[in-house]
């Protein structure tokens, strides 16, 4: 069975590499983007099984990116992460269709748990991501 | 005080006049008539006078209380008119600021295109500008919620399902903070009429506040039950409580005890609930926890109120799923 792909979007490069290492060890294929524009381009090309998305990103904010993504894809789970604790951005993330929220510094075991829960949920429900290309069930 | 002084003076004068008349009658009646009749009349008149005084004093108290309430209502009305005026001005100002902010965003995007990388001084400066611009935009969105009138078309909202949706979204974050969250809904709680997005935000705000009040972990419980023509929603935490000196300010806009808080969450929550004809209050015991109480009219009650007011329903209720 091919490894499921996760797109991790965060502007903190070293932190992203650390998290990517943990997720790869957990059996996932991880692609990285460090700004909103790059993430948007990757989302056009790839079909991740799950997206981990920072709220605050250079070039295009995480909430805006989520909003654009949800206009053409309602099913791929998106876990939002943020360094601040503003209820406003959490509410906007939920309103725009995020699946879960985690504050930084986040417990990596919880992140892995979130990824497992949402990716396996996607696999069980058999829902595609509607953007063509690789289907998440393959 | 002008509401109080005049009725008090009139009533005091009336009592005095009554007492004088009764005493004069008693004195006048005592010398004549059968033996002892005058004295009995005097006794009777004294007792009657005492009873009159008690009744008059009660009337004075009632009038004074009514007069004080009238003065308070008058003061509240003036304060509300002033606040409505300020809100109108502030809302207009916020819209203007947002227009300029949109232009600023466009210029930041142009600048970003000219910056070759994120790492240079220019790139870092642009990134900071982007963060400030986003933060300002979020602040304006919150603020405009306070000044925006309520939607005419409301939808039927199942508060238990909404609370579960919010808890599901926050589940990992709550787990990370060692907070156990649960929904306890009594069977058969009817839907309320509301703006789903705004009500979701109220619940999310209360749960985020609850989690922040429990830095060592604890339990957050959302309880739902029917109470006559209302639905009662309580959000209870086992956290540190709100200090008594801060309690009068909890629902004030821009009041926050958090370093990174703006202080609009509970002000927006109060506005949302009151716009829907509901009430929000709280009780808090420092060291024991806080419970926020929300009461909202059921969707059926909302429809009945609209019918009583002779207003046609804006839209038929959504069919039950």
Outline the structure in words.
The complex is a heterodimer of chains A (138) and B (321). Chain A is of the alpha/beta class and 138 residues long. Chain A has a single domain, classed as Response regulator (Rossmann fold, 3-Layer(aba) Sandwich), CATH 3.40.50.2300. Chain A contains 5 helices and 5 strands. Chain A has helices at 13-25, 36-45, 62-72, 87-95, 108-125; strands spanning 5-9, 29-33, 50-54, 78-82, 100-103. Chain A has a 5-stranded parallel sheet with strand order 2-1-3-4-5, with helices on both faces. The longest helix of chain A is centred in the last third of the chain and has 18 residues, at 108-125. The radius of gyration of chain A is 14 Å and the shape is globular. The model of chain B has no long low-confidence stretch (mean pLDDT 80). Chain B has a 5-stranded mixed sheet with strand order 2-4-5-7-6. Chain B is an alpha+beta fold. In chain B, α1 (2-29) runs antiparallel to α2 (37-114) and α2 runs antiparallel to α3 (121-147). Chain B folds into 2 domains: 1-148; 155-308, Histidine kinase-like ATPase, C-terminal domain (Heat Shock Protein 90). Classes of the chains: A alpha/beta (138), B alpha+beta (321). Chain A binds chain B through residues 11, 34-35, 56, 58-59, 61, 79, 84-92, 94-95, 98-103, 106-107, 110, 113-114, and chain B through 112, 118, 123, 126-127, 130-131, 134, 138, 141-142, 165-166, 168-173, 175-176, 197, 200-201, 204-205, 208-209, 212, 258, 260-262, 264-265.
Keywords:
heterodimer, A: 138 residues, alpha/beta, Rossmann fold, five-stranded parallel beta sheet, 5 strands, 44% helix, globular, disordered C terminus, B: 321 residues, alpha+beta, Heat Shock Protein 90, 2 domains, five-stranded mixed beta sheet, two-stranded antiparallel sheet, 15% strand, elongated
Task: Describe the structure concisely for a colleague.
By secondary structure, chain A is α/β, with parallel strands linked by helices.
């Amino acid at each position: 069975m091919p490894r499921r792909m996760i797109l991790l979007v965060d502007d903190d490069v070293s932190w992203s590499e650390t998290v990517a290492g943990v997720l790869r060890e957990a059996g996932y294929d991880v692609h990285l983007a460090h700004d909103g524009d790059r993430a948007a381009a990757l989302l056009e090309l790839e079909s991740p099984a799950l997206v981990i998305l920072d709220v605050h990103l250079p070039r295009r904010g995480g909430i805006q990116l989520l909003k654009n993504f949800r206009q053409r894809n309602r099913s791929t789970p998106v876990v939002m992460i943020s360094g601040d604790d503003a209820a406003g951005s959490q509410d906007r993330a939920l309103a725009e269709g995020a699946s879960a929220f985690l504050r930084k510094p986040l417990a990596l075991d919880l992140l892995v748990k979130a990824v497992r829960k949402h990716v396996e949920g996607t696999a069980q429900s058999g829902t595609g991501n509607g953007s063509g290309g690789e289907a998440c069930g393959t | 005080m002008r509401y109080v002084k005049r009725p008090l003076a009139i009533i005091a004068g009336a009592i005095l006049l009554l007492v004088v008349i009764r005493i004069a009658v008693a004195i006048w009646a005592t010398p004549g008539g059968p033996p002892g009749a005058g004295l009995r009349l005097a006794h009777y008149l004294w007792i009657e006078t005492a009873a009159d005084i008690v009744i008059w004093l009660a009337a004075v108290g009632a009038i004074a209380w009514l007069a004080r309430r009238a003065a308070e209502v008058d003061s509240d009305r003036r304060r509300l008119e002033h606040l409505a005026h300020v809100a109108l001005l502030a809302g207009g100002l916020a819209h203007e600021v947002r227009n300029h902010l949109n232009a600023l965003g466009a210029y930041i995007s142009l600048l970003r295109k000219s910056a070759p990388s994120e790492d240079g001084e220019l790139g870092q400066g642009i990134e900071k500008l982007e963060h400030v611009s986003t933060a300002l935009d979020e602040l304006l969105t919150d603020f405009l919620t306070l000044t925006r009138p309520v939607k005419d078309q409301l939808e039927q909202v199942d508060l238990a399902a909404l609370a579960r949706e919010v808890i599901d979204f926050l589940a990992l974050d709550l787990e990370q903070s060692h907070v156990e969250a649960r929904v306890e809904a009594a069977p058969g709680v009817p839907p309320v009429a509301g703006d789903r997005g705004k009500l979701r935000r109220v619940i999310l705000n209360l749960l985020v506040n609850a989690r922040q009040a429990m830095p060592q972990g604890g339990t957050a419980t959302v309880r739902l039950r029917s109470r006559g023509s209302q639905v009662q929603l309580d959000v209870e935490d086992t956290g540190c409580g709100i200090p008594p000196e801060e309690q009068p300010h909890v629902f004030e806009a821009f009041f926050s005890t958090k370093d990174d808080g703006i202080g609009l969450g509970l002000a927006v929550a109060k506005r949302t609930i009151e716009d829907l004809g509901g009430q929000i209050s709280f009780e808090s015991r420092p060291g024991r926890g806080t419970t926020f109480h929300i009461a909202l009219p059921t969707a059926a009650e909302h429809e009945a109120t609209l019918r009583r007011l002779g207003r046609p329903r804006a839209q038929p209720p959504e069919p039950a799923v």
